[in-house]
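Colleagues,

For the teaching module next term, I've prepared a clean inverse folding example: a structure given as tokens, and then the sequence designed for it. I'd like students to try predicting residues themselves before seeing the answer, so please don't circulate the second half yet.
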């Protein structure tokens, strides 16, 4: 901080350094100030109101999508056994849920897993923090959003994606299971996509653990008393979901799945 006089007799003018400007990431590109736009790559891809120019731009999008897959596969192919941990970006650092995330991240490392999250704040940060402080591999898979989140400081291996579907592929391909902390729409999206992939046998050997009995019990009861009761899902589908408040029990579920399936390397190796 510096201070100077204007014309020798004016009030002190205090300089606090450069003004904070808007910031956004577009894949690997950092934009600041006037360079920041209001849309994302996903929005432009899914915009059905485009004019005929899409005939010329979509082939380039395919190349960009391909490059994201290649970069993701290249960065994560040798990761080893890993578990993805999901949860709200809004989870407060002084909350019980944040502490649980730290404990889960630490326990996963001690059990021999790398930890993969969405790389953001809140519950994602808590799991990355636990893994990082335990000396394990802490992975963050970020996404381009209209508002900047960035990767949290506890990510050791980070990737930032333009397209949600590429990012989701990485979560599933390199994980031996999901642990889902309390979260909102994004967390529910990841949860139900995983359940759908297991239900349809697109992926196998994949435990899905909901952490937080009081938070998730209402959803589980709705699935049982509405979806299953009205024939929209099978009673056996309830077996795809495990709910617990215990870190030790979560590790036991993962360990039993690993022993049952003989998994010692990533469940979905590149072909």
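(Answer key — instructors only)
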């Amino acid at each position: 901080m510096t201070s100077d006089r204007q014309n020798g007799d004016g009030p002190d003018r205090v300089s606090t350094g450069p003004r904070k400007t808007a910031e956004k990431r577009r894949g690997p590109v950092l934009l600041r100030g006037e360079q920041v736009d209001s849309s994302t790559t996903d929005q432009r891809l899914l915009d059905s109101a485009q004019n005929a120019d899409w005939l010329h731009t979509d082939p380039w999008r395919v190349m960009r999508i391909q490059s994201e897959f290649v970069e993701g596969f290249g960065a994560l192919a040798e990761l080893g056994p890993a578990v993805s941990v999901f949860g709200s970006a809004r989870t407060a650092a002084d909350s019980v849920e944040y502490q649980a995330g730290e404990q889960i991240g630490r326990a996963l490392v001690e059990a021999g897993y790398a930890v993969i999250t969405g790389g953001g704040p809140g519950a994602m940060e808590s799991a990355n923090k636990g893994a990082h402080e335990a000396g394990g591999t802490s992975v963050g898979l970020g996404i381009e959003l209209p508002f900047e989140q960035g990767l949290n400081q506890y990510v050791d291996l980070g990737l930032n994606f333009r397209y949600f579907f590429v990012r989701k592929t990485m979560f599933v391909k390199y994980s031996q299971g999901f642990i889902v902390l309390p979260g909102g729409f994004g967390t529910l999206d990841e949860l139900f996509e995983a359940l759908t992939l297991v239900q349809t046998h697109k992926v196998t050997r994949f435990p899905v653990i909901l952490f937080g009995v009081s938070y998730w019990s209402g959803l589980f009861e709705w699935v049982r008393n509405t979806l299953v009761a009205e024939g929209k899902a099978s009673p056996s589908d309830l077996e795809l979901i495990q709910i617990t408040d215990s870190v030790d029990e979560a590790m036991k579920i993962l360990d039993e799945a690993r022993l049952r399936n003989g998994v010692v390397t990533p469940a979905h190796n590149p072909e």
